[in-house]
Design brief:
Order of helices and strands: HHEHEHEEEHEHEHEHE
CATH superfamily of the largest domain: Vaccinia Virus protein VP39
CATH architecture of the largest domain: 3-Layer(aba) Sandwich
Structural class: alpha/beta
Helix content: 25-40%
Strand content: 25-35%
Number of strands: 9
Length: about 220
């Protein structure tokens, strides 16, 4: 799986992963992180997620990272946001108010950029990547976040042999192994969501859970 996989998904309109509303779990659990207002929050593989709007409305500065220019343009157009754009060494940056989206590969972000992010909201990134890329992603991004960062991580847990990803199954044992070198990943909720996701049942799943984590680096 490479960048072209996701670029083609956006080009072909195969974006069933996009949600048309703000994620209720974000609204429920984000306040528990107690991040100071005006903190910069990293949203990796952000697509055109409405969750970025909600975070900005709560007073945070949002840094989304997305490969697809189509997704970025759609986000600003569909939400009637006037953005400005400029090129940077990491990619083209689109800015509207408290929201900035960087058109780039998340694995190319440098330390200077990541060091400014004291918050992270990871709903779509970890579960979008196959196992070898998950390890590279966590090491590159989370090891470079500053000490004291706080984050909210959502994963899915199901029997991987019953369905090909993405989204991939990332259970608690794997989460702990991925983060143990640099962060604390505290499981704060486990929710059975199969009845709310009939498309996954149609693909053969008999169990589907969302796992919610409070992330931190002391």
């Amino acid at each position: 799986m490479d960048a072209n996989f996701w670029l083609e998904r956006w080009q072909k309109g195969q974006t069933g992963f996009h949600q048309s509303t703000v994620m209720p779990l974000l609204q429920k659990y984000w306040p528990q992180l107690s991040l100071p207002k005006d903190s910069q929050v990293l949203v990796p593989l952000c697509g055109k997620s409405l969750d970025m709007l909600w975070l900005a409305q709560q007073g945070f500065r949002v840094l989304g990272v997305e490969l697809s220019p189509l997704a970025i343009n759609a986000f600003f157009t569909e939400n009637n946001l006037q953005s400005t754009a400029h090129d940077s060494p990491e990619g083209r940056r689109h800015v509207a108010g408290r929201i900035e989206i960087l058109c780039a590969d998340i694995l190319t972000l440098n330390t200077a950029t990541l060091a400014q992010c004291t918050g992270v909201y990871d709903r779509a990134a970890l579960v979008a990547l196959p196992p070898d890329m998950r390890a590279r992603y966590v090491q590159h991004v989370y090891m470079q976040l500053p000490r004291g960062y706080r984050g909210l991580l959502l994963t899915l847990d199901y029997s991987q042999e019953l369905m090909d990803g993405p989204p991939f199954a990332v259970g608690d044992a794997e989460v702990q192994a991925l983060f143990e070198r640099h962060s604390t990943a505290r499981l704060i909720s486990r929710r059975d969501i199969l009845s709310k996701e009939p498309r996954f049942a149609q693909r053969g799943l008999t169990r589907l859970e969302t796992l919610i984590y409070d992330l931190s680096k002391v």
